[in-house]
C-alpha cells in the first residue's frame, strides 16, 4: 500500500498529536500541549483519510455518543479544564476507535519482539480481553 504525500504528512501529524497528548498528560495535564496534540491529531486524521470520509466517520449515527464525548473533551481542554477534558475525550476515543483494537493487536503480534511478548500465555489472554478480540475457532 503506497501512501500519497498528504497521507505521509497526515501520519506524521497524527503521531506528533499522540506524542503531544502523551506529554501533556505526563506533565500534569498541561493544557497547551493537550490542545496542540488534539489539533495535530484531528488534522492528521483528516489528511490520512480525507475530509469527506473524516466527516462521515464522526457523523455516523452509531458513533454519535463517541463523537460528542470526543469533541466535548477537546472543547473542555480548550476551556482550561484539561483533566476533565482528557477523561471525557478518552471515553469518546474508546467509543469511536474501539473497533480497531483487535486489528491493531493482530498487527502488533506480527512484529518480531512485540509478538513474542504478546503471545505469552497470561499476556495473550489479557490482551485479548482488553482488545475485545475473540479466539479463532480454527
Automatic annotation (TrEMBL):
Highest taxon, organism lineage: Eukaryota
The name this protein goes by in its record: Got1-domain-containing protein
Locations listed in the record: Golgi apparatus membrane
GO CC terms in record: COPII-coated ER to Golgi transport vesicle; cytosol; endoplasmic reticulum; Golgi cis cisterna; Golgi membrane
Topological type in the membrane: Multi-pass membrane protein
InterPro entries in the record: Got1, Vesicle_transpt_Got1/SFT2
Entry keyword annotation includes Transcription: no
Alphabetical keyword list: Golgi apparatus, Membrane, Transmembrane, Transmembrane helix
Major location category of this protein: Golgi
Amino acid at each position: 500500500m503506497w501512501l500519497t504525500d498528504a497521507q505521509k504528512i497526515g501520519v506524521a501529524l497524527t503521531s506528533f498529536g499522540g506524542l503531544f497528548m502523551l506529554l501533556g498528560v505526563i506533565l500534569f495535564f498541561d493544557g497547551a500541549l493537550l490542545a496542540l496534540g488534539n489539533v495535530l491529531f484531528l488534522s492528521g486524521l483528516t489528511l490520512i483519510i480525507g475530509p469527506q470520509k473524516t466527516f462521515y466517520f464522526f457523523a455516523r449515527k452509531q458513533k454519535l455518543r463517541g463523537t460528542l464525548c470526543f469533541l466535548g473533551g477537546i472543547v473542555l481542554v480548550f476551556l482550561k479544564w484539561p483533566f476533565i477534558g482528557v477523561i471525557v475525550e478518552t471515553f469518546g476515543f474508546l467509543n469511536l476507535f474501539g473497533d480497531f483494537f483487535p486489528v491493531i493487536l493482530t498487527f502488533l503480534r506480527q512484529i518480531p519482539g512485540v509478538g513474542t511478548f504478546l503471545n505469552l500465555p497470561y499476556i495473550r489472554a489479557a490482551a485479548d480481553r482488553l482488545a475485545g478480540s475473540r479466539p479463532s475457532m480454527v
